[in-house]
Amino acid sequence: MKTFRLQVDTYHKEELIDITKEIRNFVKESGVESGYLILFVPHTTAGITINENTDPDVQTDVIKGLRDVFPNREDYLHFEKNSDAHLKSSVIGVSEMVLIENNDLALGVWQGLYFCEFDGPKSRKVWIKIFTD
To answer: What is the largest CA-CA distance in the chain?
Structure first.
């Protein structure tokens, strides 16, 4: 088992950041030919997801859709006034598992890994654990 940490700096209140290349580099560095990895985001207003990575409009549309479903409402009670970010994080989730084959991520042709910021800008972390078969 190998453990890595990735720092992700965000620059907007809400954004999806493609971290596929960085995670691929950790897999290469690990030397694991076959296994899996777990990505975990230790934040309550951020998340991690797998989605299309060829058309940047998909990222924009995901953010727009989440805003529509979870607007920042005045009647939320949380004192930090970021309950919408907590809801988005809960729905997207804070972890993903990805298979490793031939020392690479076993993603589909159109898939990429995205760090999801819902309460930025901030300096964030992604924890990566890589396991062999």
So the answer is: 51
Please report the pLDDT score of residue 57 as a whole number.
95
Domains of the chain: 2-132 (2.60.120.460)
**pLDDT tens digits along 87-108:** 999 999 999 999 999 999 999 9
- Residue 58 burial class via C-beta count within 10 angstroms: exposed 0-12, middle 13-18, buried 19 and up: middle
Q: List C-alpha distances in Å: 56 to 45, 69, 78, 110.
A: 22, 21, 32, 12
Place of tokens 């991520």: 105
Residues 48 and 94: beta-carbon distance below 8 Å: yes
Range list of β-strands (E), 22-92: 34-40, 46-52
Reference 118, options 57, 48, 39; nearest CA is 48
Q: What is the model's pTM? A: 0.95
